[in-house]
Amino acid sequence: MRIAVTGKTGQVVTSLIERGAAAGHEVIALGRPELDLADPASVAHALEAAAPDVIVSAAAYTAVDKAESESDLAYAVNGAGAGAVAQVARALGVPLVHVSTDYVFDGTLDRPYVESDRTGPTGAYGASKLAGEHAVLEAHGDNSAVLRVAWVYSPFGANFMKTMLRLAIDRDEVSVVADQLGNPTSALEIADAILLVATNLVADSNPALRGIFHMTASGEASWADFAEAIFAASAKKGGATAQVKRITTADYPTPATRPANSRLDCSLIAQVHGVVMPDWRQSLDRVIARLQPTAN
Question: Is there a domain that residue 286 lies in?
Answer without folding.
Answer: no
